């Protein structure tokens, strides 16, 4: 997976600083009414468009619009059955019951400021709402440190404590480094030496590659991005908006959408 080119790092830092300031405004914005735009691909899915303009498929509205991710990012790669890729990839860390009414798929980077805010909202909502399951899609697009952080989190999954490591790393300030990973690993009861060794596991390459392919297939242009049931969200939601969207998706469900896509999807080649 290609990373943003070095000349874009200054831009990324400025974006991150801007997002930190924007978060203050985001937390005070009312839930408002939702608007949806139906998608032709994937069939049955839809984009969430807020009256406040936070979430839209328009690349100009994306948190990282303008970042050059290289030629590879211009062509979407087929992913096979979209619902399997999103909700049921056995390699994806997940939290919550497999038969939950609403599955939230989260694409994120540990160096993304709003990803930290969203992670806190989703963790709190899931703790209070048994209808919610979260699937974690590591999508490290902010450079080598982000890639290392994603691999550290996947290594934590090998010791059975992905969620604990993920949530603690999201709350821990500082640029991701091996020393930071050691600190977080010890804090949540992991073997730090094993964690650093497992960061080089070949299986992590495949997971990150699939996540990148899926993000491109869905047209994501920035982080954080989400799939909530059949609704695609690119950008920022308040805690109240998250709760409203969960209620809507719990009432509608994704079974029909997934059955439709499975029936029209040709068999995919081994990954």
Structure description:
By secondary structure, the chain is an alpha/beta fold. The protein has one domain: Glutaredoxin (3-Layer(aba) Sandwich). It is 45% helix and 13% strand. The protein has a 7-stranded mixed beta sheet. It is globular and about 45 Å long. The chain starts with 8 loop residues before the first helix and ends in a 7-residue tail after the last helix.
CATH architecture descriptor name: 3-Layer(aba) Sandwich
Poorly predicted regions are 1-32, 56-74
Specify the oligomeric state: single chain
CATH hierarchy class name: Alpha Beta
Mean pLDDT: 81
Q: Nearest-angstrom radius of gyration?
A: 18 Å
User: How many E-type strands?
Assistant: 7
Secondary-structure element series: HEEHEEHEHHHHHEEHH
Task: Kindly summarize this structure in a few lines.
It contains 10 helices and 7 strands. With 271 residues, the chain is of the alpha/beta class. It has one domain (6-264): Glutaredoxin.
Features of the shown structure:
single chain, 271 residues, alpha/beta, Glutaredoxin, seven-stranded mixed sheet, 10 helices, 45% helix, 13% strand, globular, disordered N terminus
Question: Strands, helices and their partners?
Answer:
Layout: H1 9-26, E1 34-38, E2 46-50, H2 82-87, E3 94-95, E4 102-108, H3 113-128, E5 132-138, H4 144-157, H5 162-171, H6 178-187, H7 192-198, H8 202-217, E6 225-228, E7 231-234, H9 239-252, H10 255-264
Parallel strand pairs: 2-7, 4-5
Antiparallel strand pairs: 1-2, 3-5, 4-6, 6-7
Helix pairs in contact: 4-5, 4-7, 6-7
